[in-house]
Design goal:
Two copies of one chain form a homodimer. Chain A is an alpha+beta fold and about 450 residues long. Chain A folds into two domains: about 300 residues, 2-methylcitrate dehydratase PrpD (Orthogonal Bundle), CATH 1.10.4100.10; about 120 residues, 2-methylcitrate dehydratase PrpD (60s Ribosomal Protein L30, Chain: A, 2-Layer Sandwich). Chain A is built from 22 helices and eight strands. In chain A, strand 1 and strand 2 form a beta hairpin. In chain A, helix 8 packs parallel to helix 10. The radius of gyration of chain A is 22 Å and the shape is globular. Chains A and B meet through helix 3, helix 4, helix 9, helix 10 and helix 11 of A and helix 3, helix 4, helix 9, helix 10 and helix 11 of B.
Chain lengths: ~450, ~450
């Protein structure tokens, strides 16, 4: 019955024993980019009404003011800060993506450890190692069960993110291998998040709750709260109960030498990654068409079936729904050259010119087109046809955002929330992460003036 | 794609529109028994080390002292009180059971609403209606997916309990049908709890977290945090993602006329329900054998296969593991006539006389034996054989505990924690639930002296 070799315990041993000095410069540098992208997104999303509403509900129950709500004035207890920051970082659908699994790993992991770091001071070196380990754990568990797990309907960012958060916080608490194993078990039994929630506020709730639940798992384990020692691989463990595929080699093979955490990518557009080739191609077409954009008769997309499965909403009514409409995204890219958060507001989704063009967009599916590609044909009213093929969207591993593009993305979105001066200060500070004595200072620096002043007092 | 008729929304309409006066006296009376049994268990379990450790972890993050930790001195915010009380009420495996699904429904539901009731005062009439509705929702959703869902490895008490807690708290907050639908959605996307955790502290974590998460779902919905409107029945909703069986008629048919909440049962023994026939039979055999108990050569059990699947541990090492060993349970029943919490301590599990008899117990499975039955053959050293068949264990729907037996169970376990005088006061108060002006008073009355004095001040 227990024929499966141990998975959870060896993983926990690796989590608890890795030293920051074991990390190569390359892995560290990738980790800093992950952190910086996450922080920009968390600030950028901080004023979204999804965050307002979550805060309105939880503030009543929050404990001591231990940690900052990023990009705002409020301070909450560690767990609630992890929840809210996880929501903020994902609410614009602008965060990082582990392309092999479509996991957005930083939300659960970084939201958990930054909140903890404000309460138990952590050096940049230890923080970075914890983040990298947490991202690695989430992505490797994801590899073990993807795509079956995702196809069944699980939002893999939440279900694997809770393990990543538990692993990362276990490191910050200095848990030994046994307690880290328990923390992974307490995470496993909270793994949740349904894809049915896409297009509602609950989608960004998933990484937030994964951050909170993973962090709590580590604190419970620290207090001696025990759990299964085989929570991932047992016959009734995570991988079998939540997936038909269990490739455990993906979890353990090459730990510490082959890094999934270095395969993270950063979106240039604030929506589901499968729409990115379309936006990329439509932005290019807009530049080529010039004034002819006004003469578009029809737009034909040829895409992988997953694109329509995930983002096939033909008549989105809200900004959130717009993120799940390749038709809306094509229209905003062609008419406004925009795939940033401002392309996915309620106003833009309801704008008559956008709706008019959106309704001229058709899509056909073709399994021979890669998920990362698209073929676009624009037909003008005078009969001319312009074609555009995108083989790899900008932001993919083949065309990663440069550091300068990451910086622009950071400032473009965060300046709208905390002002450009503070945004640039925060950006500069984020690059210094590996050498910081106290990472919590970054969270406080992200806050808007009122709280930042209070935090410094 | 959306061919399934609506389930979640009609359920939410029923939840939000039912009036306490719609409940028959019989349904109310059953609800009071459910509450009383739950309260006794929550007090009885309050000093378990599982609770100590959970409290040690969460206290650091708890908000204002809004609600009582039942049977102790601490006060926590509503959400953490719901968590801890849910753990306490299940930790002795002594709580209620909806036999059709093996759901323990009161833990998630009552733990959530009693904590809320201390913060937003609630009358006994409204509280009882909320509890009955919450239990009904959890059990009906359970019926829709049981047994496939449970067989896959889900701890159904946690996965359906979160809906029950969300439904019950939605009523206390006065949410309309739309917001109640959201609350059910926020619950659905947190449905979790693996059977792999049985025998560890995480098992009782499940009803606790379900109480907390369900309550939070309702508060989030109240604040306008939206969710899917079809979280149960959508192609990627709860029932399809977490089960291969989806019998939606079980959720909606006869709502308000046929009551699952009235099919709740109460355990005479502090362990998994499938062992109860064995304990019942062995206690009867003990009475018949007298001094011959010391001459037992072997004990042969013939049971349904599920009994060994759930409780087949042959060499339990801890009290918790003892609850999952039909062999240990047979030994304590034969040697001590005990199936109460004192039969499942670390000490008793390790007692030499218990181990010696435990190792003489053998079990064979027989699908023709009902899950609620057992056939026991005791062979003595002189060759005599004594047989005992139990068709329905005490505590089952065919032999329910009387009110007097429920009272004895309440006092026996709670007096050990809060003393007999307070236990009897609390019992008397619990019977008056339907007429109480402020149900929160019961939670405060359950606390040990130090806090009770403070609460009254």
């Amino acid at each position: 019955m227990n024929a499966t070799p141990a998975v959870t315990r060896p993983l926990a041993e690796w989590i608890s024993s890795l030293k920051p000095s074991d990390l190569s410069d390359e892995v560290r540098a990738a980790g800093v980019r992950t952190f910086l992208n996450w922080l920009g997104c968390a600030v950028g999303g901080a004023r979204h009404e999804t965050v307002d509403r979550a805060l309105a509900a939880v503030t009543l129950f929050s404990g001591p003011e231990q940690a900052s709500v990023i990009g705002r004035t409020e301070r909450l207890d560690v767990m609630h800060a992890a929840l809210i920051n996880g929501i903020s970082s994902h609410v614009l659908d602008y965060d990082d993506t582990h392309l092999k699994t479509i996991i957005h790993p930083a939300g659960p992991v970084a939201s958990a450890i930054l909140a903890v770091a404000e309460h138990r001071p952590v050096s940049g070196e230890d923080f970075l190692a914890a983040q990298i380990v947490g991202v690695e754990v989430a992505c490797r568990i994801g590899n073990a069960v993807y795509p079956d797990h995702y196809d069944r309907g699980w939002h893999i960012t939440g279900t694997t993110g809770v393990f990543g958060a538990a692993a990362a916080v276990s490191r910050l608490l200095g848990l030994d291998a046994e307690r880290t194993t328990w923390a992974l078990g307490i995470a496993a039994t909270q793994a949740s998040g349904l894809r049915e929630m896409f297009g509602t506020m609950c989608k960004s709730f998933h990484p937030g709750r994964a951050a909170q639940n993973g962090a709590m798992a580590a604190y419970l384990a620290e207090a001696g709260f025990d759990s299964s020692l085989r929570s991932i691989e047992a016959p009734r463990g995570f991988a079998t109960v939540l997936s038909t595929k269990q490739d455990y080699a993906e979890i353990l093979d090459g730990l510490g030498t082959r890094w999934e955490a270095s395969l993270n990518s950063y979106k240039p557009y604030a929506c589901g990654i499968v729409i990115h080739p379309t936006i990329d191609g439509c932005c290019q077409l807009r530049d080529e068409l010039g004034a002819d954009v006004a003469r578009i008769e029809s737009v034909a997309l040829r895409t992988h079936p997953l694109v329509l499965e995930l983002t096939g909403k033909t008549r989105p009514q809200t900004g959130l729904e717009g993120k799940f409409s390749v038709f809306h995204a094509a229209a905003t890219a062609l008419l406004r050259g925009d795939g940033s958060p401002t392309a996915f507001t309620d106003e833009v989704v309801r704008a008559p010119d956008i709706i008019a063009l959106r309704d001229k967009v058709r899509a056909e599916t073709d399994r021979s087109v890669h998920e990362d590609a698209v073929h676009i044909t624009v037909t003008l009213t005078d009969g001319r046809r312009i074609e555009k093929s995108v083989a790899h969207a900008i932001g993919s591993l083949d065309r990663p955002l440069t550091d300068a593009e990451l910086e622009k993305k950071f400032v473009d979105q965060s300046a709208l929330v905390i002002g450009e001066a503070r945004s640039r200060d925060l950006l500069a500070a984020a690059w210094t992460l590996p050498g910081l004595a106290d990472v919590g200072s970054l969270a406080r620096l992200s806050q808007t003036e009122a709280a930042a002043g209070r935090g410094a007092a």
